[in-house]
Amino acid sequence: MEEFEALLNESLEMDTPDEGTVVKGKVIAIEAGQAIIDVGYKMEGRVELKEFANPGEAPDITVGDEVEVYLRAAENARGEAVISREMARREEAWDRLEKAYADDARVEGAIFGRVKGGFTVDLGGAVAFLPGSQVDVRPVRDAGPLMGLKQPFQILKMDRRRGNIVVSRRAILEESRAEQRAEVISNLSEGQTVDGVVKNITEYGAFVDLGGVDGLLHVTDMAWRRVNHPSEILSIGETVKVQVIKINKETHRISLGMKQLQEDPWDLVAVKFPLGSVHKGRVTNITDYGAFVELEPGVEGLVHVSEMSWTKKNVHPGKIVSTSQEVDVMVLEIDPAKRRVSLGLKQTMRNPWEVFSETHPEGTQVEGEVKNITEFGLFIGLDGEIDGMVHLSDLSWDQRGEEAIQEYRKGDVVQAVVTEVDTDKERISLSIKALGGDKFADAVGGVKRGSIVTVEVTAIEDGGIEVEYEGMKSFIRRSDLSRDRAEQRPERFSVGDKIDVRVTNIDSKTRRLGLSIKAREIAEEKEAVEQYGSSDSGASLGDILGAALKGDN
């Protein structure tokens, strides 16, 4: 009896399932939304039918089916076994998922719900979290079409103890996309012409789908002409013919071009636009250093700010021309290697200094407004939007330049005489004092050094006397008032006296005559000696002067 009891207990221990384990059972009935399952040893339990259904699907269970369930308790208050199909599936799923995670293998699942930051995925019994950033390679606005759809996922991390699983759909798509890209790229070669569909347009270009792989069509490779934005010539969904410019085998990046399929307009630039020729163009862009002018589609030249105007030197190009304006330009230089054309705008108009030189020769009287006053003179506005300069020394005959310039104000209208035009240096010299002619030159026109002239005393001073000749003031120093020292007295003269003097110097710069009574007396004495005697004849100076005076009488 003892042996039989031991064998019976051993048999019961081997066949009776332990609580907390997965056991096999058989569906013996379906009633009231529940499946009744016999798990052996006259133990039966109930399982809700929904536990046999995948998310979004109807329960797939019939009487007679063998299923695995999780035995939570051998008996409840009603004498039934407490079992769960869902927990059995979860345990089974965790075992399967842990193996797949270890092998870095894909797992199949279906998205069935939305949670904060992402979605929930049923992996055949285990629920995983799918972050929003891992749904697709690009942000997904509407995940409706993906719901309930069985598809592969990649397990990023999992923790069985905490019951956490994080999966990615994006990793699967990127992997398959990389395989597809590699296959497409292997069939492409640089220089090949292919058809593609515009998928996306950005500020710098457009992405073109070449049948599973995208290539970048940069804005500079769309046309030979300047393209401000790709949308000017492309639209999303449009089929375009492009040329493969470059393929990076490592990064799988493809550079595309459209203009390479067209004739390069630069091949004929030198023939169509010879140096010195004038052409009409359209302003396409304005910068701080100049303006770009399109001569023909694909050929642009730069009008540097220094070549825009003869007269406007420090003005922004935008104040001379405007975008889309048609202008006449001259070709100054062509560099085919650098694909550059230098253009000139001012060269299509005559040099205003040359025009002024032709219409206003030296000596011409002009009138203009005082534009600027500087420490060295006045700038006068003239015809042709050019300026002429009146130097301090050309303001007045009688005043110093620093004094004369104080009489002028900006905006005053003045008259002047053209004294010089330098077209190379773009300078025009004017003179205000020359308006009335050169009084000094007129006064001393017939006077030479040594001439005897008659002057009028205008002032008596301690150091000499002031005299006037033909309106020109001069000063005779005390030492030049007489040959005789005793007679070198200014007070012996009176204002208004007329006296004869000898011209000793003519200074055009200071506009002064050097005059001397003493020099006149010495010259008269010398002349008398030469005419009436000499010191060797024995005649006295008195005799000689007497004879000279008698001869004069």
Blueprint (SSEs and pairs):
Layout: H1 2-15, E1 21-31, E2 34-38, E3 44-48, E4 66-73, E5 82-84, H2 85-102, E6 106-115, E7 118-122, E8 127-131, E9 150-159, E10 164-168, H3 170-186, E11 193-201, E12 205-209, E13 214-218, E14 239-248, E15 253-257, H4 269-272, E16 278-287, E17 290-296, E18 299-304, E19 326-335, E20 340-344, H5 352-359, E21 365-374, E22 377-382, E23 386-391, H6 401-404, E24 413-422, E25 427-431, H7 439-443, E26 452-461, E27 464-469, E28 472-477, E29 498-507, E30 512-516, H8 517-532, H9 541-552
Parallel strand pairs: 13-15, 18-20, 23-25
Antiparallel strand pairs: 1-2, 1-4, 2-3, 4-5, 6-7, 6-9, 7-8, 9-10, 11-12, 11-14, 12-13, 14-15, 16-17, 16-19, 17-18, 19-20, 21-22, 21-24, 22-23, 24-25, 26-27, 26-29, 27-28, 29-30
Helix pairs in contact: 8-9
What is the CATH first-level class name of the largest domain?
A: Mainly Beta
User: How much strand?
Assistant: 35-45%
| CATH architecture verdict of the largest domain | Beta Barrel
Biggest sheet: strand arrangement: 3-2-1-4-5
Q: What does the overall shape look like? A: rod-shaped
Which structural class fits the helix and strand makeup?
alpha+beta
State the domain count.
6
Main beta sheet strand tally, sense and closure: 5 strands, antiparallel
Count of helices? 9
**Rg calculated over all Cα atoms:** 57 Å
Low-confidence stretches: none
Keywords: Repeat, Ribonucleoprotein, Ribosomal protein, RNA-binding
GO molecular function, one term: structural constituent of ribosome
Domain S1 motif: 20-86, 104-170, 191-259, 276-346, 363-433, 450-518
Family: Belongs to the bacterial ribosomal protein bS1 family.
